[in-house]
Specification:
Rossmann fold; seven-stranded mixed sheet; 44% helix; binds S-adenosylmethionine
């Protein structure tokens, strides 16, 4: 048995991540990390597309704290879309949010229809970033902004054995680009004002705290939702994750860029 047996983002994975990363979040850092991704971006009254919205935590925060007019969240997993809708209802934000389950592939949206494209820890699951960023450029209005957090790698050489073992342990598809390669792809897609932020040090420190919590203060809660055997499996995965953060091969990062308009 493993945490991804019921699908990459199935009930067990969602329950585990809710305990560790908080309600609405399937990636680390909660609302503070969203603020970091959105630093310097004025989203007041803007229409935002959240690619890979997961359980909706970012959409709620982008409206409540950043003043976005509306957020359209898209994701390939029906269960996370259901959770996102429930979360929006809980915050009385069903009217300004729209969560849709989509197929992987090109965005089903008109040209120049969105002010800001936001995404957090999703692009690693999408193999072709060239096509993805060209498509994002297409749907953005002139002067529109793309703001992304993603799990990246130190370079674009084949992953080390340690990295391959970590990815296999996660049981998820991970196609990680380096920060430099993202910069090139953004330029090739026509984006300008590109800002790249390396978050390896931040997440290395945070992941160690997460592991300590899973082994300590959160252990009972984690065992309650996924059982002891899978809690031990999750602890092993976190150790492998910390290993590749420590070598620096795993480099969480942010980028933002503007569509010339
Ligand atoms: C690590 S989770 C992050 C979710 C959310 N952005 C967050 O930070 O809480 C990755 C999400 O990407 C979604 N995903 C994977 N491939 C996708 C694709 N091609 N298009 C849209 N979403 C995708 C998964 O279903 C999952 O909800």
């Amino acid at each position: 048995m493993s945490i991804t047996d019921e699908g990459h983002y199935g009930p067990k994975q969602l329950n585990l991540l809710k305990v560790v990363w908080g309600e609405g979040f399937l990636s680390p850092g909660g609302t503070n990390e969203i603020d970091e991704v959105m630093e310097g971006i004025n989203s007041l009254g803007k229409e935002i597309l959240d690619i890979g919205c997961g359980c909706g935590g970012a959409a709620i925060h982008l409206i409540k704290k950043h003043g976005a007019k509306s957020v359209l969240g898209i994701d390939v997993e029906p269960l996370v879309i259901k959770k996102a809708k429930e979360l929006a209802a809980k915050y009385n934000l069903s009217g300004s949010t729209d969560f849709r389950c989509v197929r992987p592939g090109p965005l089903d949206m008109p040209d120049e229809s969105v002010d800001i494209v936001f995404s957090k820890e999703v692009f690693l699951h999408i193999p072709n970033k060239e096509d993805l960023l060209k498509d994002i450029y297409r749907v953005l209005k002139p002067k529109g902004i793309v703001a992304v957090s993603d799990w990246m790698r130190i370079d674009d050489n084949p992953p080390s054995k340690q990295m391959r073992e970590y990815i296999a342990a996660e049981g998820l598809d991970m196609h990680m680009y380096s920060l430099k390669r993202y910069e090139q792809v953004l330029k090739n897609s026509g984006f300008t004002n590109i800002v790249i932020k390396d978050r390896n040090k931040w997440y290395h420190n945070k992941a160690k705290k997460e592991l300590a919590a899973i082994e300590g203060s959160l252990k009972k809660q984690v065992v309650d939702v996924i059982g002891l055997e899978e809690t031990n499996g999750a602890i092993d995965i976190w150790k492998q994750l910390i290993g590749v953060l420590e070598t620096g091969e795993h480099r969480p990062g942010h980028f933002k860029a503007v569509k010339i308009g």
